[in-house]
Amino acid sequence: MTSLLRYQFINYVRTYKYVPPFSIFILCLVVNYTFTPNPILNSYSFTAIILFFLMGWFTVTLFHAEDEGQKVITTLHAKSRTQYNLGNFVICVLIGVFLSCVSVVYPTLIGAFGEKPRFIHQFLGFLAHFSLSVLASALSAIFTRELVKNKQNTWWGVLAILIVSVVIATLKETILQIKGLIWLLPPVRLSLEMMSSKDSIPSIPTIFYWQFAWIFIYSAIVIILFFLLSNRKRR
Question: What is the reported pTM?
Answer without folding.
Answer: 0.91
